[in-house]
């Protein structure tokens, strides 16, 4: 009897092992297919089989992470987007081009800036500048760390619409190529306030059409840069670490904001009100184009990103507003600014 049991045990062990290896194989095959479908969808090509294998591993890990996250109770969801074959480290390096090294310099400069909206006392419960025709379609910076240019341009497109009545898509590439006097370094990162300074000195910015986006650093086309479609006379910083002040500003116009967009939750954000996880190491420039409150009472900022319309909510993210920290969620209230017509 004991012998029989032992045989049964060994047999059972072998069977279960074979079955688990089988299912493991099936998982690998399914994952490969999943990855290949994803490659087609996003037009991804790898240089060889090794690279493909390597990317498939990362893809697999990201899928697991996204699934695990979505199984939990959160106010937002993650999704398999165009960044699914990148580790979080790679993602940060490629896409987030707001220069953190300038933070210190900036904090000092902020002290003396005037704030024209300080006495604004009435702010609506919700506001969406897209509804007022002051926001152009979502753009895609692709693999160039010039979020700062997209952030500044979106804010400028907003004030241009408000002051002239015309919504004109303006050129980020002009900033990438021509704004090299300050610490701005095109695809290697830059700073929204420096972009505004360049635009003021240049006496304007040309259209997206005149100076189209390439997504790489290039030589300044001075001929196109001299054709001005819109101009600004100055810019101001929103008082730092003050979400109430940011609300006053955004009530009046879309504003450039810097955030910490380095986490995997940000990388794979697909919808809902983003409530974290993030720190306050500012590394990404985006544009606050409104705010609101959900039916469950969660207040949020409506933020335009520059990662195409397949990321987030058609290219936008709603980020929790009026959080406990004075810096705001992901540091959104730390270094906001806006151009003046
Ligand atoms: C806000 O109101 C105060 C007090 O009336 C005034 O001194 C200040 O100049 C006003 N600020 C702006 C930007 O208008």
UniProtKB/TrEMBL annotation:
E.C. numbers: 3.4.22.33
Keyword tags: Hydrolase
Organism superkingdom: Eukaryota
Protein's name in the database: Fruit bromelain protein
């Amino acid at each position: 009897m004991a012998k029989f049991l032992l045989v049964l045990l060994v047999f059972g062990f072998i069977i279960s092992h074979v079955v688990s290896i089988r299912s493991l194989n099936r998982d690998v095959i399914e994952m490969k297919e999943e990855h290949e479908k994803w490659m087609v969808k996003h037009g991804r090509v790898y240089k060889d089989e090794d690279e493909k294998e390597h990317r498939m591993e990362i893809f697999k890990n990201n899928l697991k992470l996204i699934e695990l996250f979505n199984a939990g109770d959160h106010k937002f969801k993650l999704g398999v987007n165009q960044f699914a074959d990148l580790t979080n480290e790679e993602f940060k390096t490629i896409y987030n081009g707001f220069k953190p090294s300038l933070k210190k310099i900036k904090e000092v400069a902020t002290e003396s800036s005037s704030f024209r909206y300080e006495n604004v006392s009435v702010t609506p419960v919700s506001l969406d500048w897209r509804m007022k025709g002051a926001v152009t379609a979502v753009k895609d910076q692709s693999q160039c760390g010039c979020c700062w240019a997209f952030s500044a341009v979106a804010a400028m497109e907003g004030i241009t619409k408000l002051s002239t009545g015309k919504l004109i898509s303006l050129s980020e590439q002009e900033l990438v190529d021509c704004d090299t006097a300050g610490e701005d370094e095109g695809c290697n990162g830059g700073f929204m306030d420096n972009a505004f300074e360049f635009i003021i000195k240049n006496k304007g910015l040309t259209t997206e059409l005149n100076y189209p986006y390439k997504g790489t650093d290039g030589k300044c086309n001075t001929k196109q840069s001299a054709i001005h479609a819109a101009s600004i006379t100055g810019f101001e910083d929103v008082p730092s670490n003050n979400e109430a002040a940011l609300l006053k500003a955004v009530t009046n116009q879309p504003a450039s904001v810097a955030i910490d967009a380095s986490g995997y939750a940000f990388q794979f954000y697909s919808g809902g009100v983003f409530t974290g996880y993030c720190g306050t190491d500012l590394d990404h420039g985006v544009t606050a184009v409104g705010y609101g409150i959900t039916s469950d009472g969660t207040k949020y900022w409506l933020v335009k990103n520059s990662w195409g319309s397949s990321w987030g909510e058609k290219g936008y993210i709603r980020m929790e507003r009026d959080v406990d920290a004075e810096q705001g969620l992901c540091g959104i209230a730390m270094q906001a600014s806006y151009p003046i017509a």
